[in-house]
């Protein structure tokens, strides 16, 4: 039976490789995959050397997909559709797959290794305890395929743990304590053999080690002795000559040979060790011993080895690009250490002229790319990943780092100035010279002695090259101006020439990359020259802006989006007259980037498109007070909004909703009412997660044009349906449901007296949610749901009483009394006070028992709520004062590094201490201390010791005083009529008037409200009435002032009209 099944599967696998029976074969395999034993059959076929390679490849690919899909099923939806692999299949697969890796050829082995990695990720170590034993046994053989299979599996295992935290790596650490010494021994044995097969195994061992030390170094896995041994081995590989004859290969082919790959991975290990564990003064405290050891034993040897590699490159001896890049990158780090700089210094000027200078010239490859595809050239130039392994980038880093040293910068500058002053200098040399000026500009500007010279350099050598006939030189000149954008220009004429030159390039240059560089340079000048160039740029602002937008359309370069934003920010009034043109260009660009061409794949332009939509939003803000322009712009922007909703472009929903919000802030046009329906349709697909993003826009539809909102029943039905769906969604979470409750509350308060027929439905949907299940910390959600009921009390108390049955009413106020501390901010607190005092006006027979039996509790709750309101008002005022103060004190002096002024050059005996690194290490140490303290507290539970450590909290920790006080909640951004400063609800006045009414109409109730208060609460109440009286005087004063009358003195003494004494 098993053999028959295998034959059928083999036949089906072969059929999948041809178009004729592919569909039928795929269906058979899909059905067969549900059978126990299918995975074993696939593995057997994969490892069967008697089968055709095509069938084995089809089998391993099907096996890989099956394991990825069904070994572990985590997604809930997939669990309903897929059948997981049984343990009957898993056990034999785990048992046999490693042997299969060893026996299989490369095309199959790579897929099997992926299978092993997936299985290890879920099963190691608990379900696969003998894995390490199997691998170790393979390493102890004398069989090259066994070593290769073992090393590939170990590498996959280290990749699984590569990015995990140290505390989560214990299974790997336990395994590597046994494996790593064996790997070292094998690498030692292989070193004497420089054959291709031997170097392949060496390369895998080097990659394994890199995974182990990429982010952290475990001392129990690699102690100082092992650290020493491995580094010695890496250095030996870097130093050894490539003996193989590669003369018949071109440079690209040479770099791909195994011998240069071994050098690359050895250098990667050495560089990573130096960066993270070997740089004295710049490593974590736990690695300081490794850093000391590195400098004692290896630092000088590594530096001399790298100098030899660089010397070979200068002599014309082949060095692969990656090895050159890593050597230069390592050297850039090394020269910050005085001990290593002394070794490099004698060679540096020679390196500048004979290696760095040629590397910093434009290349023939770049010339070809510019000529054939300028858009691609621009994108490559502004793609950070393009520079990731580019020797020119590491050459720039080395030059920048070394130029901080005494006596280095001026000879380099003299060298390039000589080049730029010579009329016979080649175009490539001019380009490299300008490049060096740009690289050194930041260090020049920071140096007090030299910063004034930067302006002269730009005037004499950079500005004239803006109009150079050679396109690379024009582009480089623009780039230098960008790099030197912080130059302290003292001569306005020079700055004017620079700005004019850049505008000329943006508007009239025929070369796309030049226009892009000029545009980005303008942005940096706007940012760093403050107001100095506003007047200079103003005459060109329309042409520059529209050209940049066209550049964006043509190149799709993300770096251009901020240029548009900067111009809009700094030239608001100037942009408004041609806002329609800007909007049109932006919308055209949006459509180009979101509409795929028929004959090419769609690029991922998501980030750029988001930037475009954000810029449109900024533009709408500019013209919101210019109705004649806004009408035209809205028509254009609306096309974007409709396109996103109609095409269901979910990536842009947030930005599109923000645009819709901006277009409905002051009025809602028929076009925008049509969008409301699209928002509802989208919500039906997206549900609760979408509702929170849509909330500001929905609030606008409700509050900006309430009359139109109420004029069509579907508008109301859509809103209530969205709220109900969110409240009924058990997976929604608290935040969307709070938004839904807030929207219902806004609906009730905004439509005062106009929605009586909908109020029962509102109460029902909120009540259904209130009686449902809640998470443990859902107090704020409950409070917001209860607030909807309070809004109905404000809307119409009598209607509220008619709808709620007595038992529901009793339950509701019990909930209010229980959760009143979760009413935060000003709005919810004052609405609760209003509702409680409104209930007190009812006859006693209609009052809920919880109020009737404990009136004093009502007063205490009101006092607590007023205290919260007063704290909110005070905190908001203090925050605003603080913001005003901080904006005035925005400028601050630059910090200086310890022992050296910021503008001084480094002496040969100084180390270049990176301030950011120091801050990072200090923060790590602080975090470590906090974790240690927390561990002590969690581990011992000793209150006395906890107090000594400063972590003791009193029994009142759960009080509002202990927690961070919330003065404004996010939901308070959604205004209602009761929040209006002019006509809103002044709860202080309402409270005073209600208590006055009760004192007159029901003295007994009044005494019950106050009689049970202790002396402290009585004093609070007296002070509250004083404030209420002052508020009432203020309200009267405002009202009379609005009619042109006199003003009351709100600070005048207030006589008490209340008698709180016991009768």
UniProtKB/TrEMBL annotation:
Compartment list: Cytoplasm; Nucleus
Domain of life: Eukaryota
Biased composition range(s): Acidic residues: 884-896, 905-914
One cellular-component annotation, GO: cytosol
InterPro entries per record: ARM-like (IPR011989), ARM-type_fold (IPR016024), Importin-beta_N (IPR001494), TPR_IPO7/11-like (IPR058669)
Boundaries of every Importin N-terminal domain copy: 25-103
Keywords in alphabetical order: Cytoplasm, Nucleus, Protein transport, Transport
GO biological process, one term: protein import into nucleus
Disordered as annotated region, ranges: 880-914
GO MF annotation terms: small GTPase binding
Pfam family, one: IBN_N
Family to which the UniProt record says this protein belongs: Belongs to the importin beta family.
Name the record gives this protein: Importin N-terminal domain-containing protein
Originating organism: Acrobeloides nanus
